[in-house]
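Minutes, project huddle
Topic: does the predicted pose make sense with adenosine monophosphate bound?
PN asked that the exact inputs be recorded in the minutes so nobody has to dig through chat later. Recorded below.
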Amino acid sequence: MSEIIIGIDLGTTNSEVAIVENGIVTVIVDGEGRKMLPSFVGIGENGQILVGEPARNQYILYPERTIKSIKRRMGEDIQVEMAGKHYSPQEISAVILKHLKAVAEDYLRKPVHKAVITVPAYFSDAQRQATREAGEIAGLDVVRIINEPTAAALAYEARHEGRKRILVYDLGGGTFDVSVVSIEDDVVEVLASHGNNKLGGDDFDAKIVKHIVDHIHGQHGIDIGESRQVMARVNRAAETAKRGLSDEPFVRIDEEYLIEKEGAPVHLSLELSRYEYEAMIAEYIDETLEAVHIALSGANLTASDIDEILLVGGSTRTPVVGERLFAEFGVEPQRNIDPDLCVAMGAAIQAGMIAGESVSAVLVDVTPYTYGTSAIGDIGDGDYYYPFKYVPIIRKNSPLPVSKTEAFYTAVDGQEIVEVKVFQGEDIDALNNIEIGEFLVKGLRNVPAGNLITIKLDLDLNGILHVSAREKDTGLEKSITINNAIARFQEGEIDVAKARVRALFGDDDAGFEPETAADSETEEHHVQVKGRALAEKAQSLLEKASDEDRVDMIDLIEQIKDGLAGKDFDAVEVATDKLADIVYYLDA
Ligand code: AMP
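Predicted holo structure (tokens), as shared on screen:
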């Protein structure tokens, strides 16, 4: 067996170690099951050395005994002070590297001597040299230093053939880098890089912290900024809230007994919406996009030259990041490899290649389809009231398991029922996707339009999709479970394909082949979907109609609803056709 070479992502906020074993890339977990090591080093109460989580935990209370973000100082001729002693940045980094080496050795049950370590593309020679030295101090022969965007590209495209241009957007805790990478067969080259090494998720936390501080000040007239302990709790709460908002449209921030005022406890209880949060961080996201354009022009390319966008760094889980990049490039960013781990995986792939291992692509369980629901909206033809605009909730290629929630609003005053339809597919018109489930939530409060309903989709590794809808104000909830959601799509797809082929052969063919249960089910399904869609569309056009048409329309809508309820699909079809004529000329 070839000698093992480990791959290390030595990050500003977190560091990881990965290896290639029997051709498969694995990020190594430590004794406590963690893949990510916070890049913190400290001296504990009894003088013992602390690395990772324990060092991070003491940081706020004992900053004089703790070092964070040492990566920012690499290559500088300075000493940092920790518990009264002085250390070079190389030495502090070496403590992190030594810990990762030990994690790998525990896992492999044999000594490790060699490593590939990643650095930002903008690192100077001095910074790269300092990283090598840190490796040496830790007892590692650094066989290669590679650029982080190169590593990310390798993780995604290890066995790529032909040429691709890739934008690597890396937004971590404290740094932002964007690189344009060209990959051609085995040659990966960074064409241009840009960024801001003082911008990242910590700034997003700070915005939420400020929001909380202002809230407490506004409500209780107290300035909590003075107390380190209180601010430590607020910081943690803000970060938790931020992560929550990546998956949910609202979060609650609750901290009991945060502080005392005149002997009485003050509790923090606040709701934050993704919408408010996105407004807080908009200036930062704008700044990253400006950097993207600078990197593109540095590479003499334009947005349309980019084949893929890779998301790296924990902060790219913020949905607005992917949305803005999609709007800018028209390319859906890749999110199938964990953005926190993909640089370490790429380092391991490079290490494996050097060691002469044959490396296969990174294996991850992802959903091959997008899942979502429908809402009223424009699908690009100028009709703002089309009732079946597809709203993706879980996107294709999301790693499993995944749970996402989105907010919706009722459309009419006094609306007591919402119908939730669940679709699989990618088309903006939900009716061109496959409907895989539906249910009603009844008994909503009698309030004006705009009643908030959250819809949550949970998809597990076995393809079981759990869908729930909840009236936010009351907690009224209804849910369904769709078993085998991933395979069902394929069945549905087969039905659609069968119908298409039948259509190609013309109706004559129907005489030769007896209609199967599945065929007739598909047709009934289409009649139902069409009937329902048209009834909803007609409903939205009632105001536009003449009195005479309105009476006919209401009558036909009723016939469709009765037919659907009684499963009389012939009646639904007849009424749908008649209604289609009226709707057609009203809508024209
Ligand atoms: P990194 O430096 O790549 O390890 O990124 C760490 C940053 O990612 C921190 O600021 C985290 O708060 C942030 N982060 C991690 N998970 C999420 C999430 N689900 N949503 C938003 N930010 C996240």
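Observations noted during the meeting:
- The chain has four domains: 1-159+337-363, 201-280, 371-482, 517-586.
- Residues 506-519 have pLDDT under 50 and may be disordered.
No decisions taken; revisit at the next huddle.
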